[in-house]
Amino acid sequence: MHAGDGEDAIGLDQATGVFVLLDKLVDGVCIRNRARWRDAAFPWARLKSTQGIHCGGMPPLVFSWPYGLFFLAVMFWAFAPEFRIISRQTEPATSSQDAGSKRLIAIGQGLAMFAAFWIAASVPSARLPHRFWLFWAGLATIIGGSLLRRHCWRMLGASFTGTVIVRPDQAVVDRGAYHYVRHPSYTAGAILFLGIGLALANWISLVVLMGAVSAVYAYRVGVEERVLLGTIGDPYRRYMSRTKRFVPFAF
After folding, report:
1. What is the DSSP letter of 89?
2. Residue 82 pLDDT level (bands cut at 50, 70, 90)
3. How many CA atoms lie within 13 A of 89 on its CB side?
4. What is the pLDDT confidence band of residue 251, given thresholds at 50, 70 and 90?
């Protein structure tokens, strides 16, 4: 060993200790800064750490930035045409043929939506895991349901109304999706609400939405088919004999 090697070694150890200490201090600052940034950007992450919420209990992404913005944009795109059809002035708000089905659909679906969002925000025990994948699967399902609804509007043309209105000279539409099922627009509506339930990532919200949609559509379909049979008669009866209501070849 050369003279001074021991002192150099001691100096090196001291320098190494200083660097280790500085490294720990920097890491501590970085960790604290990352925690502050996380808490500011994702306040639910702080709630998780303080209340011990497990991954499956995290709130739905529809209530988080920026996912909520994507959800609102898709919802506006999907429902804006629906409101235009319901509120258009070329048809009466109700009719004797409608038997209150339009009002039932509006009230039933509206109440179900309110309940589903309230439950998703307030009942963490019913939240589903994999909320990230459920969110994007829900958006894709909403888009798919709305595209099918738009297809149905094009196929029916002026015969697509918010209120049940059937004329004696009305032709039975047997093209596009209507070639396979009698009520594809209601199938599309159910798909749309299924997507909302998936995006909310809460099984109670999903059950509430699908239960309400099934109930109001079941009533509406019964009213429609009764009026169509009574007004159009045999052409619609023959159409009914070879088609299913909602799902091709099944239901």
Report:
1. T
2. confident
3. 0
4. confident
Write the pLDDT tens digit of every residue in 106-156. 999 999 999 999 999 999 999 999 999 999 999 999 999 999 999 999 999
> Distance of alpha carbon 28 from its chain centroid, rounded?
41
28 & 133 share domain: no
Strand partners of residue 202: 127
Cα–Cα distance for residue pair 241/251, rounded to 1 Å: 13
In a domain, 174, yes or no: yes
Structural domain boundaries enclosing 24: 5-41
Task: Give whole-number Cα distances, 88 to 11, 75, 85, 161, 163, in Å.
Answer: 86, 20, 5, 9, 11
Would you tell me the crossing angle of helices 131-156 and 67-87 to the nearest 10 degrees?
A: 20
Question: Would you tell me how many other CB atoms lie within 10 Å of the CB of residue 248?
Answer: 13
| Among 2-16, 93-107, 111-125, 189-203, the least confident range | 2-16
Angle, alpha carbons 72-77-81 (nearest 5°): 130
Kindly provide the b/e burial profile for residues 140-173, where b requires at least 16 CB atoms within 10 angstroms of the residue's own CB.
ebbbebbebbebbeebbeeeebbebbbeeeeeeb
Mean pLDDT of 64-76: 95
Question: Based on the domain organization, do 100 and 207 belong to the same domain?
Answer: yes
Q: Are 160 and 185 in contact (CB under 8 A)?
A: yes
C-alpha distances in Å from residue 220, one per residue of 40, 133, 223: 47, 33, 5
% of the chain surpassing 90 pLDDT: 64
CA 119 to chain centre: 14
Q: Does one domain contain both 185 and 80?
A: yes
- In a domain? residue 126: yes
